[in-house]
Design a protein that fits this description.
With 252 residues, the protein is α/β, with parallel strands linked by helices. It has 5 helices and 7 strands, in the order αααββαββαβββ. The protein folds into 2 domains: 40 residues; 206 residues, Vaccinia Virus protein VP39 (Rossmann fold), CATH 3.40.50. Strand 4, helix 5 and strand 5 form a beta-alpha-beta unit. The structure holds S-adenosylmethionine.
């Protein structure tokens, strides 16, 4: 095939293009691969350890801080009130498993209303820290990955602002274990109004809110089935920052 050039300049331009094009394509591919490698999810344990080490959820000058959602009185106080009301409504107090207990600023207010309170988190140093501070006869701390490990048995599972940070695969694995508990109390930070549920995220500091999404355990791919559902609390955050919704599920 003959290619006609109108000028020497055009000819030189074409030569340069033909020489450099494969190099540019090669460099572009290399950059794309590097970006893909960087986006490869970390193990959740490492991601959560980093969140606490680097104070990615903020800092209140303590060694471990689980974020404003665990400390702001406007968010925390009504939650403690509804949970207290639920837990004290039983003649025989419940065995509660707090899955993803965090810095325990919230959990510590519930222990006294339970028969036994089993608090679990994936971050070992956080669990050791909690053990050294919070000591009650009916309180146990365990370091477990709730997506991977077997869960202790109990009457009621509490998951407060935990699933919102986890990938769909991990949520799926956790949801499949929740049917062992008679009661499940789930708290999730979701967008206000309508949204596309369950968009995929990489487990870590962030939530689905950055994708204008939130968790809905009844929607695909989770399709959680329960006997009864009751909304216990809804806290609307200022500046359209979403809603923190607490729901009670009754499994049997
Ligand atoms: C935003 S904090 C909420 C803490 C607490 N539930 C509260 O409301 O104050 C989420 C917690 O879940 C824990 N977590 C995340 N994935 C976990 C997993 N797979 N197994 C156990 N804990 C996990 C994190 O380490 C973190 O402490």
């Amino acid at each position: 095939m003959y290619v006609c050039f109108n000028s020497t300049f055009e000819y030189i331009q074409s030569c340069i293009y033909n020489i450099y094009r494969p190099i540019v394509v090669f460099m572009k591919k290399k950059k794309e691969n590097r970006t893909k490698e960087m986006k490869k999810p970390w193990p959740t344990k490492d991601a959560m350890e980093q969140v606490y080490e680097m104070k990615l959820w903020g800092d209140n000058n303590s060694d471990f801080y689980s974020g404003i959602g665990s400390h702001d009185p406007e968010i925390v106080n009504p939650y403690i009130a509804v949970l207290t009301s639920f837990l004290t409504s039983f003649k025989n107090p419940l065995v509660v498993c707090d899955l993803g207990c965090g810095d325990f600023n919230v959990g510590k207010e519930l222990v006294r209303h339970t028969k036994k309170y089993i608090a679990i988190d994936i971050v070992k140093d956080l669990i050791e820290h909690n053990k050294s501070i919070f000591k009650e006869e009916n309180l146990e701390f365990h370091c477990l990955d709730i997506a991977v490990d077997n869960l202790p048995s109990g009457d009621c599972a509490i998951l407060r602002q935990v699933l919102q940070h986890l990938s769909n695969t991990e949520v799926q694995s956790i949801v499949s274990k929740l049917t062992d508990f008679k009661y499940v109390i789930l708290t999730e930070h979701i967008p206000e109004g309508r949204f596309t549920p369950n968009k995929e995220i990489i487990s870590g500091q962030g939530t689905r809110l950055k994708k204008q999404s939130g968790l809905d355990v009844f929607a695909p791919p989770f399709n959680f089935k329960v006997k009864e559902e009751k909304q216990l609390l809804s806290v609307i955050l200022n500046d359209r920052k979403g809603v923190i919704l607490t729901t009670l599920y009754n499994n049997f």
